[in-house]
Structures are given as C-alpha cells and as structure tokens.
C-alpha cells in the first residue's frame, strides 16, 4: 500500500500539440535532439553492460564478441523498435544456461541460426497479440526458474574462479569440485577474490567518498581493479582474447534433429519473452514512481516485436540471444533517462568500444569475468523472492521448479513447476476446512475455510447437524467461491433451523453479517416469512453471505460496519437499546469484544509475523488527532504499513521550539533514523478545530494568540498559559504565511478554498512540511535522496483526499486523488531489484 499514491494527470496534458489549432503544420524534418539526461544515463548503462556482456558470453561458451554484438543490437534495435522506452536489452543471465546447452549440443553457428528462428517466433507471438498472457505465469515458477539458472551459473563459474574449466552439467561440476579444490590456481583465485571483494564493498563505502565512488558501477570498478592488479603484478592468467572481426563466426543452417532444434527455439522464445515482458512491466512501475517527465507506458506487444527483431539481427550477426534486462533498465531509470534514446546510445557506445577498445579489453582476466558472473548467479537466488513465495504459500512450486531447472534443464524444470502449480491450485480449490465449536455464551460457530464446492457438502452437512435445534448459530464463510450444490445445502439447512426456532447469522471473511434476513430474530420469526419471497431473495443473500453487500442486521451488535460511530449504531443489542445511555466504557468493551470475535482470527497470523519480524513501515504519517480522521481507512493501510503520529492540528514544532515537549521530534528521528521510512506525509483535514482557534487569534503575539485561541473555554481564566495554548503557538507560522500577500495562496486543483478555515488548513500542511525540512535527520535523508515529503488534505464532508502537487510552479496546489488503477500505485516489486548492485533477470 501507499498512502501517497501518485497524482493522476489528465492525459490531455501529456499529448498537447506543439502548435495551436490554427497554426501552420509542424515541420516534418525536425532535427534529431538528444536530452542531456538521456546522454548521461546511456553512459551509466554502458559502463554496466560492457563487463557483464563479456562475462555472460564467457559463461555460455560463446565467442566473447557475441556478447558485445548482443549488447549493441539490444540497445540499437530493441531500443528503437521496442514498446518499453526505458527498457535496456542485451545478453542476460536468464538465458545463460539455455544458450550454453544449445552451444554444447549444436555448436555456435547453429545456435546463431536458432536465435534467428526464436526471433521469428517472437514476431509471430507479437502479431497474435498474446504478450499479456505471459504475465499469467505464476511468480513462484518465474522466481524458481531464475533461482535454478542462478545456481547453475554459480556452480559452473566457480570452476573458472578456481582456475579450471566447467563441466557440461551441474552434477558433473559438483562431482569435479573436490578435485578442483585440491588443485587450486593461486593467481586465478586471488584475482577472483579481489573482484568479489570489490563487488561487495563498493556500494558500502561510507561518507562523501562513497557517494562519489558509487557514480562508477560496482561491476566496472571490480573488473577494472582486478585487471590493473593482474597487469601490474605480472600474473599469468587466461585473458580476454577478441579475435579480428573479420573472422567473426556467422550463423549457418541448423544441423541436427528437427525435434531438438524446435525445442531449443521454443525454449529461447518462451524464456526470453517472459523475462523481457516482466522486466518491461517492472520498469513501468519504477518510472511511474519517480519525479520528472512522464514516460508512455510499455506496449507489450510492440515490445515483443522489438525483442523478436533484435534476436533476428543479433543471431544473423553472430550474437547471443537478446532479452530485456531488469537491472540495466533500473539503472537507466535511476540515471534520469527520459526516452528510448538512452538505450540506443548505450548500444552505440558498445559498438565504439568494440572497435576502438579491443587492446584494453584484451587485458581483462577471465577469472575476473567469471567472478562477476558467479556473483550475478548468486544474486538470482533472491531472499526477497523466497520471502514472497513463502508468504503466499507457494514454496513447494518454487523449490520444485528450482531443483528441476538445476538437474533437468530449464524447459523441463519449468514444465515440472507448472504441473506442481496446477496440482497445488486444484488442491486449494477442493480442500475446505470446516469446524464447529460452541463458545462460552452458548453460541455455535460453524467456520468454513476455503472454497465451498459439492465435494465439501458431506462435511458441511455433518458440521451443521451438530448444532441442536433452537440454538443461535454463526456461520462464517471465508472463501471466494460457492457452487450451487453447496449453496442449496446451506440454504435448506438454514430454513429448517429457523423453522425449529433457531437463529442463523451468516458472516463473510471480514466478520460482516450477511443480510437482514439471515440474522432476523429469534423464536422463529424468519420461519413465518413467505417462502416464495425467501426463495426469490436467495441470489442476493448468497452474494451478501460472502461479505460483498454487508448490510446491518438486527441480531447482534457485530452486524454494524466497523467504522460506524457508537452513537449511530441502530442494531438491537442484548439487554439494552441505543437510548439507554450506557457509559462509553461499555461501548469500548463491546467494540473490543467484537474485534476479538470477528477480526482477531483474520489478522492473528499477520500480527504474529509482525511480532516476529518487527515493524518495518515505509511511511511516517503525521496527521491531526481529530476523531473523524481514520488513517487506516483513508489510506487502505493495515498493520505494519504506517508509522502514525497524531497531535492537535498536525503540527511539527521547529527544532528548539518544542517548549519541553519533544514527542514529535523524537517520533520523526525514530522513524527516519531507526525505521528508515521512505517518505513522510503531513495530512491536514477540513474543519480543523486548531485552525479555527488560530484564526480567532488574529495573528497576535505568541502569548496573545495562545490566550485567544482558547478564550472560548470559560473554565480557564484569561492569562493562564495552558498546555493547549502553548501548543497552538507552533501553528502561528502557518497563520502568518497565509496572511502574507507575497506568498502564493494554497488551493485545490478544481476550486479555491471554501473559506478562511480551509485556506489555513491547506497552508498549514505546506508550512509544516517546511518545518520538517528543518529537522536534521530529515534534511540529511533529503540530501541523500532517500526520503520524500508529501502533503495531503482530506475533506471530511466529501470523503475526498487531495495530494500536494509537484507539478505546480508555486507548489501550493492540491490535486484531487481519483480511483487510480492498481498499476498506478504499485511499485514494490521492482524496488527489490533497483537496489541490487549487479544483475538480475526479473524484478
């Protein structure tokens, strides 16, 4: 979740013509212009791609020039014709094992022809417009495939690191490893260890020197340093040997069994396509979350056409298969690229280096490249991916796919993973847990966990018949599907139970009552209803039973929506009516009891996980203590999402002016320095009482304003400095800012403030953001670029949220938040990759 979703911008602002409606037509021969951001980003991506392209070519057993050809073609061809403007394509670790197997079986020149055929197959899939279907593959299968490929790469390159050559399979490599350890090559091992040490330490260099050093990619720094040490020490090691381009091997017609050739083409097509499309989606999320010019979203069918064209060209020129590469694309976005020109320029720099820097490239030890690729393989076994599949209970699919890829091959391992995923899905569809228990109050609870199909009807019937006649029953349905047989069985039992004087309350997965009819009254009133009327309402009752139409019932106080205020509850509670005037303590205890009964069973697992792992919120949410502002509701957040600080007026005292109350400053310091939150949001709201009090003070001196702000409270004699008066002094800068004619006025995007109170509420959000920037911890994180500040305004009467816009010139406009699609607000999956120093194959 994210409390600060990106503000949607009208599409018309993105496609505005450069000329007016009555202007002459634009010049069709415009000059080709390259933005400075694209130029700098292309250099950054080139520095990452150059050593990795050589390393991947080494790992596949292909000629080293093949990696450079694939990198150049991926930049120039896929960058120009692809549908993801910011995606960078080239040779990727995800295809390393597949390509190595094909080279060993058919030879390099036939592998080039297979790459051409795979490109043609990708073009066919693109014209069939099936690109989006690739996103239907289970993430556990994709993660398991990448992990298996990573293990295979790491084990193979370990032999090169130790100074030997890898075998043809993982099993053979593992068998040969003891003998290799007994015959170490000190020179190769020392260069490899130096490369790995630089890779690990480079992103962790502290201070100003570290920030300067990180401008150079860790991969380039590691290879360059290892090359320099090997050259200066005069170590005798196998090095890169780029033969003349005149002798570069080109493809030949496939020579081998047609079935095997077809399987190889299919493998490269499927693995490369899925990897490219998933990377394109992840790049979209990353680009949508950054500030700056908006970039068009990826056209996945066009991206598949671009990848197919690039593979045809790369194979025809003797290059490796091409695919979209996640980490190079992430580096491209982080470097500020704004168009596809960045990827194309990166390909141009590869061409220039391949022609002019051959003597320099020939100095690189193969052990350094092997260590680099081995680190890439290890990183492909992502801890974040393992946590994700564990959380979604798909560890079995992940493990089976990984083991299958390692010991059987990529295509076979993925096939086994798909079969296991289907079996797991069928098991979950048919596995339903039904329990019955009676609580201390004599209420019978029948809980159904899972999908309710005809296969579960016998067990459901047995559980329901354990309930005695005339008893009060709560049936909890926690699932997303109920077929006709199960529904009829449940409905018939419900009618019979009510006819014998019992009461039935249906609740969905959130504990919301099913419908008014379900929990009507005790004593059999429901049985006296007209039977045809009940039959006609069954379809609606069925929908309500799953919590989709949660309307209040009259059987229990749990029927009211959880956010309904206590004094607005109109359901019959046992033993009293809403007019009884019961003390608030009783209401609180009743609400807690409802939580323990309805909500606690649903969140207990998640809270147990948070108790074990500790809190890791991504945002500090600072808002007013007003009881009408329910932060979890307006941000759709849950346990562990937000670190919330509330006070009167959502005020942030300036450092040194806390007047003995350091609670807000302490919370800010804890959130920023200890919890490492990524953003801070200051949220104001309409009708704020603190802002009304400040307006009544009329901008007087601090002491006068504090007294005037609480003058409406007769029990406090004038002149007494109460805690409330002292606290409200921190809002005086907002009042002065609003009164300053030279300052732009805060406003909403579609209308101005309704009155002075709303104007001050908006201005106060902007002013408190300024106060935040004055805190040392916040200023430090802002300077590092690791923290964002957001302003938010919630109109209580309209239930409408507004976000402070970055696009407005004066920074004082709050944009209305609409119903953003899911892809506009989700970016977490790619955040896992964007922090990786080297290479991955999928976000």
TrEMBL record:
Major localization listed first in the record, in broad terms: membrane
Gene Ontology CC entries for this record: membrane
Compositional bias annotation for Basic and acidic residues: 527-536
Stretches that traverse the bilayer: 39-59, 106-128, 140-162, 182-205, 217-238, 258-283, 343-360, 366-383, 395-426
One biological process term in Gene Ontology: transmembrane transport
Polar residues bias spans: 699-711
Cofactor: Zn(2+)
Bilayer topology annotation: Multi-pass membrane protein
InterPro entries on file: Carbonic_anhydrase, Carbonic_anhydrase_sf, SLC26A/SulP_dom, SLC26A/SulP_fam, STAS_dom_sf
Stretch list, region Disordered: 1-28, 515-536, 699-722
One Pfam family cited in the UniProt record for this chain: Pro_CA
Cofactor descriptive note: Binds 1 zinc ion per subunit.
Superkingdom, taxonomy of origin: Bacteria
Intracellular or extracellular location(s): Membrane
Keywords noted in UniProt: Membrane, Metal-binding, Transmembrane, Transmembrane helix, Zinc
Binding site for Zn(2+): 624, 626, 685, 688
SLC26A/SulP transporter domain mapped to chain residues: 37-400
GO molecular function: carbonate dehydratase activity; zinc ion binding
Function: Catalyzes the reversible hydration of carbon dioxide to form bicarbonate.
Family as reported in the entry's similarity comment: Belongs to the beta-class carbonic anhydrase family.
Descriptive protein name: Bifunctional SulP family inorganic anion transporter/carbonic anhydrase
């Amino acid at each position: 979740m994210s409390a600060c979703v990106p503000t949607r911008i009208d599409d018309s602002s993105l496609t505005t013509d450069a000329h007016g409606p009555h202007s002459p037509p634009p010049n069709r021969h415009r000059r080709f212009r390259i933005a400075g951001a694209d130029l700098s980003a292309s250099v950054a991506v080139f520095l990452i791609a150059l050593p990795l392209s050589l390393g991947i070519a080494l790992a596949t057993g292909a000629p080293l020039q093949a990696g450079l050809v694939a990198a150049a073609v991926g930049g120039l061809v896929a960058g120009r014709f692809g549908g993801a403007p910011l995606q960078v394509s080239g040779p990727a670790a995800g295809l390393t094992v597949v390509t190595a197997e094909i080279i060993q079986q058919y030879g390099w020149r036939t592998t080039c022809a297979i790459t051409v055929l795979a490109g043609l197959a990708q073009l066919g899939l693109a014209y069939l417009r099936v690109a989006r279907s690739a996103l239907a593959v289970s993430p556990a299968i994709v993660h398991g495939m990448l992990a298996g490929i990573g293990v295979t790469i790491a084990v193979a390159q370990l032999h090169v690191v130790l100074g030997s050559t890898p075998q043809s399979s993982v099993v053979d490599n593992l068998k040969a490893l003891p003998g290799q350890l007994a015959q170490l090559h000190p020179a190769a091992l020392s260069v490899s260890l130096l490369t790995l040490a630089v890779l690990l330490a480079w992103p962790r260099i502290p201070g100003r020197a570290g920030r300067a050093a990180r401008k150079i990619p860790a991969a380039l720094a590691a290879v360059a340093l290892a090359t320099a040490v090997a050259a200066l020490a005069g170590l005798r090691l196998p090095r890169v040997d780029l033969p003349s381009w005149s002798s570069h091997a080109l493809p030949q017609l496939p020579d081998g069994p047609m079935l095997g050739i077809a399987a190889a083409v299919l493998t490269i097509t499927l693995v490369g396509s899925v990897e490219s499309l998933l990377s394109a989606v992840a790049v979209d999320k990353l680009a949508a979350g950054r500030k700056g010019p908006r970039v068009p979203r990826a056209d996945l069918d066009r991206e598949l056409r671009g990848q197919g064209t690039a593979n045809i060209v790369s194979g025809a020129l003797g290059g490796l298969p091409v695919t979209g590469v996640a980490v190079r694309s992430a580096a491209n976005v982080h470097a500020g690229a704004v168009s596809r020109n960045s990827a194309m320029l990166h390909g141009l720099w590869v061409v220039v280096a391949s022609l002019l820097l051959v003597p320099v490239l020939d100095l690189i030890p193969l052990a350094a490249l092997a260590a680099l690729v081995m680190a890439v393989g290890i990183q492909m076994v992502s801890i974040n991916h393992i946590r994700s599949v564990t959380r979604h209970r798909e560890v079995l699919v992940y493990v089976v796919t990984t083991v299958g890829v390692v010991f059987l091959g990529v295509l076979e391992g993925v096939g086994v993973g798909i079969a296991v995923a289907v079996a797991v899905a069928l098991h979950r569809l048919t596995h339903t847990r039904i329990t019955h228990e009676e609580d201390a109050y004599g209420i019978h609870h029948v809980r159904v966990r899972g999908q309710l199909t005809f296969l579960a009807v016998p067990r459901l019937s047995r559980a329901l018949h354990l309930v005695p006649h005339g008893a009060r029953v709560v049936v909890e349905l926690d699932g997303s599907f109920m077929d006709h047989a199960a529904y009829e069985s449940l409905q018939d039992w419900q009618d019979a139970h009510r006819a014998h004087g019992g009461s039935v309350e249906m609740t969905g997965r959130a504990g919301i009552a099913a419908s008014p009819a379900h929990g009507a009254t005790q004593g059999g009133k429901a049985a006296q209803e007209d039977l045809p009327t009940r039959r006609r309402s069954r379809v609606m009752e069925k929908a309500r039973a799953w919590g989709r139409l949660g309307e209040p019932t009259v059987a229990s106080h749990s029927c009211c929506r959880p956010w309904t205020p206590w004094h607005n509850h109109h359901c019959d509670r046992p033993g009293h009516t809403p007019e009884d005037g019961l003390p608030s303590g009783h209401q609180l205890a009743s609400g807690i009891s409802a939580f323990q009964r309805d909500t606690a069973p649903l969140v207990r697992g998640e809270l147990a996980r948070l108790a074990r792992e500790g809190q890791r919120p991504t945002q500090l949410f600072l808002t007013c203590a007003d009881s009408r502002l329910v932060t979890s509701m307006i941000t759709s957040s849950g346990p562990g999402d937000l670190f919330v600080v509330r006070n009167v007026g959502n005020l942030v005292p300036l450092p040194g002016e806390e007047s003995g109350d350091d609670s807000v400053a302490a919370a800010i310091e804890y959130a920023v320095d200890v919890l490492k939150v990524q953003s801070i949001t200051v949220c104001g709201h309409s009708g704020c009482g603190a802002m009304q009090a400040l307006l009544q003070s009329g901008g007087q001196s601090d002491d006068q304003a504090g007294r005037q702000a609480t003058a409406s409270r007769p029990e406090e004699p004038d002149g007494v400095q109460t805690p409330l008066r002292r606290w409200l002094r921190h809002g005086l800068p907002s009042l002065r800012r609003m009164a300053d004619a030279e300052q732009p006025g805060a406003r909403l995007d579609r209308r101005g403030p309704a009155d002075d109170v709303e104007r001050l509420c908006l201005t106060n959000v902007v002013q408190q953001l300024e106060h935040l920037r004055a805190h040392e911890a916040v200023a430090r994180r802002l300077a590092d670029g690791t923290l964002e500040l957001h302003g938010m305004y919630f109109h209580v009467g309209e239930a409408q949220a507004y976000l402070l816009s970055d696009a407005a010139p004066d920074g004082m406009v709050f944009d209305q938040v609409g119903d953003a699609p899911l892809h506009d607000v989700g970016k977490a999956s790619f955040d896992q990759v964007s922090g990786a120093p080297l290479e991955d194959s999928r976000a």
